[in-house]
Every structure is written in C-alpha cells, then in structure tokens.
Amino acid sequence: MRLTTAAMWLNARPIRRALGREDYLATLDPDRRAATPPARLRRRGRVTVTHEGGRPVFRYEPARRTPGLELLYLPGGGLVNPLVPEHWWIIERLARATGAAVTVVCYPLAPEHGADETLAAVDAQYERLAARRGVSRLLVAGDSAGGTVAVGLALRARRRPDALVLLSPWLDLALDDPAIGRRVRRDPSLRVPGLRAGARAWVGARGLNDAALNPARMPLATLPPTLVFQGGCDIFFDDAVAFVARAAAEGAPARLVTAAAGFHVYVGAFWTPEARAAFDLVGALSRDPRGTVT
Fold first, then answer.
1. For the Alpha/beta hydrolase fold-3 domain, which residue ranges apply (predicted)?
2. Domains of the chain by range and CATH?
C-alpha cells in the first residue's frame, strides 16, 4: 500500500491542484457524464441501464449471484462529479465479494442541483429496490461523498438496510476539524477549498451543519450494522474515527477498519492486501451483518 500511495502523489496531482482552488466549481465540465460499465462486466454477468430524470441507473447482476441479496451503490465525487471508470472496479469487487446484484444510482449533482433533489432521487431508487419481489437482504454502500448520502439514506429509509458499507466516507461536510490541517500533508488527492465549495453548493441555504445533510450532525442510534473503511493518508480519517465512536456511544453497531498508509478510497487499489481484506470483510458483512461489526 505504501508504494501505491506514493504513486498517488504523481497520479492525483491534477485532482489535488483543482481541489486546492477556491473557484473549483468553475473548473467543472458542464457536460460531465457518468462512466459507462466496462465490457468485462458484460462477460461476467448481466448489465442493464435505465434512466431517471435524464440520469442513468446501472444494474449489474454477477453470474454467480446470491439469491435475494441486493446492494445499492452511491458513487463519490465530492457531490459535484459523476461516476468515473475507477468506480467500476469497486462495484465489480463488491459484487464478487457478496454475490449481490448491484444497483448504481447516479444521483443529481451540485452545483446544477441541490441536496433536496439528490435525496429525493436516491430515496426513490432505494424504495423501488426494497419493494422488488424476492429481496431478502438489502445493503447500501457508498464511497466518499456517496458515503455522505448513504448515511442519510440508511437513517431515513422506511425499511432499514440490513447493512451499510462506507468506503472512505465524507462524514462532516463542514471540514472544520483542526486535525485536517495536519493530515492534509499526507493526503495525495483531497484539498479543503474545492470540497467545501462543492458542499456549499449542494446544501445551499440549509447550511453545512444541517442535521438532515451532514452525517456529523445526524442522530445515529438507528444506524444499521455499519462498516467504515478509512485510510490514514486521508483528510477524512479523523471524522471517521469520531463518527464510529459516536455511533457506538449511541448504541449503533459500527466498526472502523483502517489502513495506516491508505489514501482516499484506497479500496480502489484492489490489488493491494488492504483492499482485498476490505472486500473479504464486506462479504462477511453481507452474510452476517451484526456478527461482523461486533
């Protein structure tokens, strides 16, 4: 993992520089679109796509599927960027580890759309999935800002997910923990100015500390069994520690899994031992949610 993280300092330089700009939103492509599924997935299962509100909803059913197991995936992107090709590696490995059919929701993004539109779209897809005939277990997963949205969904849903998987989640939209200033020197990709600009555009007048939008302000007692994966070279690390500690204090079953040298969404480096161990644990969670986190 250390070598991969070192390589990230080179590979993620454009991201790092863009997120370091106060005018980050001005750099976004107004025609940005979600990456389509790679051909390899069609060889390894069934891929379908529908459209809701002009945005794609992808579904991947692996050839070796666990009957009745569904997973809703919310991709990250700082609340402003769509699904990228690297997400498909994560999606494929989640399906492989769990045997679940994976539904990928490309939710409305800021600055063109606000949080209310995002939540409405995500809730509708989740309720539709929960109502499918034959669904016996339902998981929700998200990386980065997708994790932000996933936490709120899990707490709002009429049918609570059986488990929640958070991959390097963004758990405090305010980004005001002093630890971020110290940890940023180790983070090869994330920078506060661009992230905060995206968050402000997304929350609008509701503000960064709205308890319906910011996981750091949400009551967590009804959280389902939750696994949080976080790398030590990620400015979100300390907020993840605080989130899991607060969940435990409120009586929710949550477990934090860390990779000391891991960068933001380190599980995307699927060839590393840390990422392989993470996906193995997600597989265990899908079979025994409460037993895996306690």
1. 71-267
2. 2-28+38-293 (3.40.50.1820)
Render pLDDT for 147-164 as a digit per residue (tens, 0 to 9).
999 999 999 999 999 999
pLDDT in tens, 33-70: 999 999 999 999 999 999 999 999 999 999 999 999 99
Q: What is the pTM of this model?
A: 0.97
Cα 292 to Cα 282: distance, rounded to the nearest angstrom: 9
Long-range contacts of 277-284 (CB under 8 A, 24+ apart): 278/167, 278/229, 279/93, 279/94, 279/96, 279/97, 280/97, 281/227, 281/257, 282/94, 282/97, 282/98, 282/141, 282/165, 282/227, 283/97, 283/98
* CA dist 272 → 4, 38, 269 (Å): 8, 21, 6
As given in the structure block, the two tokens for residue 232 are 């030590």
